[in-house]
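assembly run, all chains below
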Amino acid sequence: MTRAERRKAFWERNRKSGGYLLRKKIGKVLYSLGRAILVFGLCFLILQPLIQKVALSLMSDSDLYDRSVVLIPRHFSTQAFENAWRQFRGSNPTPWYTFWDSFKLSVAVGLFQTLSCTLVGYGFARFKFPLKKFFFGCVILMLIVPPSTIITPLYLYFQNFDIFGIIGAIRGDGKGLNMLGSATPYLMMCATCAGYKAGLYIYMMRQHFRNEPKELEEAAYVDGCGRLRTFFQILLPGARPMMVSCFLFAFVWNWSDQVYMKVFFPTYKWSLVSTKLLGAASTFDGENIAKYGASYHTPEATLNQLNAAAVLIALAPLLIIYVVAQKSFVESISQSGIKG
Amino acid sequence: MSQDTNKLTDGLVDEIAQAEDAVSEAVDTAEAAADDAGKALTEASAEAAEDIKVAVEEAEDAVEDAASDVIPEEEDDPFTAAKKSAFAAAKKNPAKENKKKRRAKNLEKGNAVAGFLFILPFVIGFLLFLCYPLGMSVYMTLNKVSATAGEGLKFSWLGFWNKSSNFYWIFRVDKDYIEALVEELKRMLLFVPGILVFSFFMASLLNQEFRGRTVVRAIYFLPVILSAGVFLGVESNNQLLASISDSMKEENGAAVITQTLEKVLLSGETGNTFFQYVIDIVGQVYDIAMASGIQIIIFLSGLQTIPPSMYEAAKMEGCTGWESFWKITFPLISSMILVNVVYTMIDFFTRTDSRLMTVIDNTLLIRFEYGKVAAMSWVYFLIIAAFLGLVFLIFSRRVYYYD
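ok done. output:
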């Protein structure tokens, strides 16, 4: 049927239906048009700050003060990116080292958190043991404790680290270890499910294992497979997608975390992307003062431009990861939502 | 002698078997009679049924008598025990039963141990890195904590409630904290319903078929990354952006339209507070959109589990869209609402860029008042816990689970 024929048939049918078909068609088109506008507008709402930042960071100095320049700079300049990139250097030879350190740390944190939370999530999903509800309540408690409540005690704790006086007894002077400044304390916390947002990962893994069919394990038990082997050989392969998303979340959130990073990785010893980003504006200011003298004030606009560029630089690896692995971010959440 | 006893027990077992046969026969007939009685009840008069029942009872009594006759009552007989056990064995096999029970118990025990071993990392982490700091911070709330260089922290006891205690200070002396706390709670009342409505709306939009759906979904999940941790902190003091958007508003006149609308709505006599509430939410739509990435996905997954046949059936029965929303969608998604409310509240309370956190940070970093910071955090934490508990109590009874 050609197009003209189809159109003719439509009008024929419309005439027979007394105009109902046309009205319905118009309503449908209007509805999807309205929806498209709404969806586009809301997408713009989310993306607008990113677009704004890209525009802002590419402006030259004269554009910053030109009110007629809003989104597209008149004179392009990469000066802001160069300045921002320098701020990530910290105590390292080049800024690349900072990114490499952050990357290594986030991978380690992600791995530790994923593995420990998978074990714990499986324990909560499949076994009955006394005080199970109490312990799960503890997981929820862990989620809702604001970090500011425990951060000072944690700092003191690791300054003089000692488990029931054992380490003090071994060392002989009754004093614990000062573990601050190394990655060990935070990795220890991650390996024992006490890291940043660990409660959420436990919840996600538990939800995953609960949705897995029970017959799988029963068949393994009947065939004489032990509990540990069942877990590693039967259930872990199936849990791989969920573990990948747990890892990605842990990686991303650790990359941008400032609360724990500030405490466990002080800037005088460690240069991490998140802590350097936080101090980028002030280090740039310091740079300018060293260059032009103490009376020099870096203009507010330039500082904001620097911040925008620095955020874009720090965000770039995450955006790449997100574009590549978008599916496992979104689908893990939709899976864990099922059955509350 | 042993042969004799054997014979005796054999004979007894035979007798018992016979008696059992008799019993089962009698029971069969009785059951048949009862069946008949059931039929009779519907057909004949109740009297006849009564007669039959009596007859059945009599028959059963007789059977019991016969059975007790079969077992000889010799109390001092040394073989009574053997006979009894033989009788019991004929009924069922207790040894086997015991073994089964024990095995089940062992399995249960093993499961409990295994489960505990699986969650052991969490238990260790919880005790070492959460319980201990929490306990320590409770202790800090009751002390004046001062830092001295090289010495670490020094504690001096203050008590819970007196002129110099930390709690007295934050409730009676320091105005900033209480103000920030009240503001935070007000914002929560604005934010949580706003996020719920917005994310549900977005989820139902994304649940429809249109081109580029996955791209839109990906964009909506982006704030989970964009508004995490340090990026938000840098964002919030970015003043140039704010001034740019202000100038944009002035030029476009967009703000003028919304302001006029606001004035018109607020000049009405009734429902002022309601309109003010809605306008407040609309004014913060950007913050709300940035905070609802995960909630949208959770709602979306909930909507996708509802079978479309339900809506079709409802439509056939003449349900309007409005009715099928309240009668089908809403109940089936109620568990998601609970999850989302809890998640939103936790997310809202633990974010680090609120005014309350600024107050706490300032007390810590400028005044070095560790005890007061601990007290502030604890009051905040207890309020969060109370709110969450309340929400859970209210919602969890009304949640409907399909399966």
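The longest helix of chain A spans residues 20-57.

Chain A has two domains: 3-57, 88-278.

not gonna interpret more than that til we talk
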